Amino acid sequence: MIFYIDPGTGSMLFTILIGVLSAGVYAIKNLIIKLRFSLSGGKADTAKTSNIPLVIFSDDKRYDNVFEPICDEFEKRKKDVVFMTASQDDPLLQKPYEHVKTQFIGEGNRAFAKLNMLRADIVLSTTPGLDVYQWKRSREVKYYVHIVHQISDVTIYHMFGIDYYDAILASGEYEIDQVRQLETLRKLPKKEVVVVGQPYMDALWAKKQALKETESSETTVLLAPSWGESAMLKKFGGEIIEQLLKTGHHIIIRPHPQSFKSEADLMEKLMKKYPESEQLEWNRDTDNFDVLSRSDILISDFSAVMFDFTLIFDRPIIYSASDFDKSPYDAYWLEEDPWTLRALPKLGRELKAEDLPKLKEIIDGCLTSETFAENRETARKETWAHIGESAKLTVDYLLKKQEELHEQ
């Protein structure tokens, strides 16, 4: 007889198994330490039991745009830190650091199994869901710090995404209020929330300032949707690509990397029906800077790339997020809409299904709008604090927190 276990149940059972195994391994390690202590005549083997002072964990190489400026700042100050990644081809593994020790710790559950038994003073990560899914708080880690990895809201994570961190490093002041509201509603201990800005946005900003501007006679439109049921390609399918091609503009389509994993059939169908040509290109570069810099306008849904584009390159956007389903996210708990949804109408034009035949007219109107240009400066002040200083402020915070923990 063959038994079927649905993916949700399978994930839950695996999480329980990881918890049991972690507890068992932890108990065995403690027993070994006690035996070693006894056999040594009561002298502790500190070399093998001491904590790593600072750890940075990245679950995917695409978050290097956040962590590289921070690692560079540690290196600049000659302060030691351990960078752990779940991507075997993470570019940071190849950087010639002296004070940043880089390690590949395995992919997926193998990485989380190691983290669950980690000994460290502080762990910094962008990964949500600590102590909710496979990644459990280690008893030997003193302090967990989450850094927001995009211009958005801390509430646009799946439910309980940040609940069990000790501190949040935010990009804008409004995120403090969001954290406090969730803590009150869920009766959680109060976290430390510090606004440091956005390391990756600072790096993009510096790169943009050094970029040599080139003029082009043709208009380039970038379609860069998110993924999932509420995302643009799932809602509009090939129709939006049809209408974009009718504009006569140069079109770049850059699907979310997760689409090629979770929506592989859809991607294969669309790429086959609309192959690359002189007018159309499909982009899957790891680094999106080049494609953003070449585009005059961006069309997306609720992807944070919209804010990267409009705030860094000072260009308009077209978005489709009116039926964004908040129910899977922490935002569902709060009465007020996320900052992301409130900011979008000020930065660009909403696109609905009935507007698709007028897409060229909408694009041309956005490109000449002075109102959108004025609102971009306001949005920068709200969501991107301490421009140019975020990596410095992040490292300042971590080093100070480490000192505080040692004094306790």
Distance between the termini: 57 Å
Mean pLDDT: 88
| Name of the top-level CATH class of the largest domain | Alpha Beta
Shape: globular
Give the number of domains: 2
> How many E-type strands?
13
Q: How are the strands ordered across the major sheet?
A: 3-2-1-4-5-6-7
What about the largest sheet? 7 strands, parallel
Class inferred from helices and paired strands:
alpha/beta
What does the model show?
The protein is of the alpha/beta class. It has two domains: 51-198 and 387-407, CDP-glycerol glycerophosphotransferase, N-terminal domain (Rossmann fold); 204-383, Glycogen Phosphorylase B (Rossmann fold, 3-Layer(aba) Sandwich), CATH 3.40.50.2000. Helices cover 43% and strands 14% of the residues. It contains 16 helices and 13 strands. It has helices spanning 7-39, 46-49, 64-77, 108-115, 174-186, 199-210, 232-236, 238-246, 259-262, 264-273, 289-293, 305-312, 339-347, 359-367, 370-383, 390-407, and strands at 52-58, 81-85, 100-104, 120-125, 141-147, 167-170, 192-195, 220-223, 250-253, 280-282, 297-300, 317-319, 348-350. The strands form two sheets. A seven-stranded parallel sheet has the order 3-2-1-4-5-6-7, with helices on both faces. Strands 10-9-8-11-12-13 form a six-stranded parallel sheet, with helices on both faces. β6 (167-170), α5 and β7 (192-195) form a beta-alpha-beta unit. The N and C termini lie far apart (57 Å). 37% of the residues are buried. Mean pLDDT is 88; it is low at 1-12 and 36-48.
